[in-house]
Amino acid sequence: MYGPLRDLFIQVLGYAAADVDIDTSGEGGRPDVTVRAPSGLVDRFGTPLKISWIVVEAKDEGVFSDPETRETVFDLKSKYIGANTGWFVMVDPRVFIARQVGGKVQGTDLVLELDDQLDEARFSTVLARLRAEIAGVPEQLKRFREGDEELIASEKLPRPDPRIATRAEILRHRIARKRFYSNLRESTQHLQDACRHALQTLIPAINEIKAAGLEFAGKYGGAGALSFDAVGLILTARPQGPEESRMHDKDARVLHKRLMRAPHVARLAFDGLPAFQRRTGAEDEKVEELFAVETANLILARVLLGVVNK
Q: HEC profile for 218-245?
């Protein structure tokens, strides 16, 4: 069934062939079919990243037609659901079932009986919410910015009381915990990659500004005499005598105008990176990597503290 299922996602629901994989390892195991969609993120090299948007489990005839065995298999195979998975699809030779996972409102299953009356038009219509053009995180963000509150979900992480909770509530809790920790890991990795990428793009400008500062310092007392005001973006040194002081002040004003054109670069060059290296003792070849990682971790910590405080 895997090949025909793959073709349905490509030819009917519009996914690129490269984004539909058969029996490929993913988070939690090897779904029979995995359909990928845009994440809206790039890796440290600027390459767009894809997420496992739809995971598919195919079984023998009658397995998913029966509600009891359907839930049993879903319970076992929910391990395939990752941090950004939108749909879990269950297929047997009689029925095609798409179940939304995540979000505030998880509607009833989309069910298609695989009989002689089913044609491509009906398949595409019933499964319109799974189509490629509305798949992935960028589309979700677009809907959110337009006021769609369905994506604002709240999940309780403490385990529900098994004496009173339903099977569905226990399973939803299990999936929610898994997605929370998966999101935490992925957010950390994506933030670190983004910070590395952002810093790497700034390194040429940082080095250029540092060279200008060292040239300035060389004229007025040497590198040890250089002082930087991170608020005012002013570099000063130690000129000797009235004439040299006048030249120093003139050059400092010229340099100040240059720093004002890229204040973030100036602060990284003369304050952020040097202060970090002094505090950590990082070696020259490692300081940029460690600085990017710590920056990402601080961003994530502030986000988490903000969520907890709310």
A: HHCCCHHHCEEECCCCEEECCCCHHHHH
d(CA 299, CA 294): 9
Q: Is the pTM of this model over 0.85?
A: no
Angstrom distance (rounded) from CA 197 to CA 1: 41
Within a domain: 177: no
What is the extent of the structural domain holding 80? 2-152
Query: Which tens digits make up the pLDDT trace of 3-54?
Result: 889 999 999 999 999 999 998 877 677 899 999 999 887 776 778 888 899 9
Q: How far apart are CA 188 and CA 69, in angstroms?
A: 37
> Are 201 and 144 found together in one domain?
no
**Amino acid (1-letter code) at residue 232:** G
165 part of a folded domain: no
Q: Which residues pair with 88 in a beta bridge?
A: 55, 99
- Distance in angstroms (rounded) separating the CA atoms of residues 303 and 80: 27
- Kindly give, in sequence order, each residue whose CB lies less than 8 Å from that of residue 85, ignoring residues fewer than 6 positions away: 51, 52, 53, 54, 55, 101, 102
Helix (H) or strand (E) holding 95: strand 95-100
One domain for residues 137 and 209: no
What distance in Å separates the CA atoms of residue 222 and residue 202, rounded to the nearest whole number? 25
Q: What angle do CA 110, 116, 117 make, to 5 degrees?
A: 60
Domain count, the chain: 2
